[in-house]
Amino acid sequence: MIKMSNKKFLAFAILIVASIFVAPARAQAPQGAAGRDTVIVLPFENTTSQREFNWIGASFADSLSDLFAHAPGLGVVSTDERELLYQHLRLPLTSSPSRATAIKIAREAKATLVIIGTYSVKLPQADASGAGGDDKLPLEVSGTASVVRVNEGKLWRKFDFGGAVTNLQRTQGALAYNILYLRDDALTLSLNDILNLATKVPPRAFESLVKGIMTEDREKRSAYLQNAGREYAKARPGEIYPEAEFELGNLYFEQEKWKDAAEHYTKLKKGDAHYAEAAFNAGLSHWRLNDLKSALEALVPLASDLPLTGVYNNAGAISLQAARDEKSAEERDRLLKQATGFLEHAKESDPQDATVLYNYSYALFLAGKFPEAADQLRNLLTLKPRDGEILFLYAKALERAGQVEAATAADNEARRYLGKPYAQYQTIWQKSQTITDVPLRLAPQFDV
Fold first, then answer.
1. Is the pLDDT score of 9 beyond 80?
2. Of 266, 225, 272, 218, nearest to 244 (Cα)?
3. How many whole angstroms separate alpha carbon 230 and alpha carbon 155?
4. CB 168 within 8 A of CB 59
């Protein structure tokens, strides 16, 4: 790994000014086309083997979408809307699809233009003395963005771009301007207007953010990200740097420091680029802390804003857990109704999701609908025939439904596949006819 001192790094970064190599072209769209377009920007593809730099591709999608939203007469498919489309088409949220798939996504979004791209990252060459620094940071990013007309399924124009990673905002701003000018040469926004929008994050804060994301050293990452937040607040008193808070949340989430993760995730507000994922992970963090109230405060609003299967499932499962533990009959009924509603939406979204079907069956069981729960669990066993917890719930649903012989057979299978937990679950069942120790199941990742 080539290293460079901080002082040399700064000098080098200053010398590498972000640039776009293709000058703005006159629009070649049919007359009057400007004003009738809707654009969707997909994550750019990292063509290097350095997967830790995939965040750059996602940042192009987010940044260009945000900048395009300021252009008059241009509709933009938002990040949240794009994520819904990806789930509908069963694509990973950060995937960089082929042109054919990109066109399919765009048509689903009713977009007329789709922007796709590729990029690579490059570390600086060692100087003559072989000296270096201590930051694992790709100082240069370069690539190509393609503007594709959806209706014709044809490439309209390609733009090459490149520059220092610390100047990534300017690179993205210049690229956004070129694409907007291509579409409409009477564009009322100037290049400076776009660059000012693109560089609204103070440079020192952005530089610290980039360094923090790039380093694999957890202590350095934390220090860089916290410094990014300080630099942002210094330039914008009273405001927080959402991207830095999100990355700090991710850092603590990976280390299972649930309280710290939740603290940083919950600083993001609706409208921030990573709000949805932050709220989802905040819900998981609070759940890990057994703070079900705070978990639901994060997830219930998100389920209205972003109806993803995983969001519905987790909001439903945590509502169900809260209902199971609730002493007040009135509040228990409210939570159970809420849980069932979310899980029904999740089931409609993905009828074959085993986690959703498990939780939905659990909800039917708690509601006293034992024959219906048994039917759902029987179907679920076709997907998970050796799942001990499903078999245990199935046995108890059959027992409460009066199907004694079938319940005994299912119970024997549950004992076989559950192992040690069976004795614990069975003891509680015999004492109170409840399933309080049988766990609910949450989707662990935002893009499930």
1. no
2. 225
3. 43
4. yes
- Residue 342 gets the label, from left (phi > 0), alpha (psi -120 to 50) or beta, of alpha
pLDDT digits (tens, 9 = 90+) for 393-415: 999 999 999 999 999 999 999 99
pLDDT at 128: 42
- The three-state DSSP-derived secondary structure of 391-409 is HHHHHHHHHHCCCHHHHHH
What digits encode the pLDDT tens for the residues 119-152?
A: 999 877 654 444 444 455 547 999 999 999 999 9
Note whether 309 and 446 are within 8 A (CB): no
Q: Is the pLDDT of residue 3 over 50?
A: no
Chain segment 55-89, per-residue pLDDT in tens: 888 889 989 999 999 999 999 998 878 888 888 88
| CA nearest neighbour of 41 among 121, 105, 120 | 105
User: What angle (nearest 5°) sits at the alpha carbon of residue 365, between those of residues 362 and 371?
Assistant: 120
Cα–Cα separations (whole angstroms), residue 42 to 79, 148, 208: 9, 12, 26
To 10 degrees, what angle do helices 329-349 and 292-305 make?
40
Please state, as a whole number, how many other Cβ atoms lie within 10 Å of the Cβ of residue 271: 7
Determine the distance from the C-alpha atom of residue 413 to the mean position of all C-alpha atoms in its chain, rounded to a whole number: 38
| Contact call for residues 116 and 146 (beta carbons, < 8 A) | yes
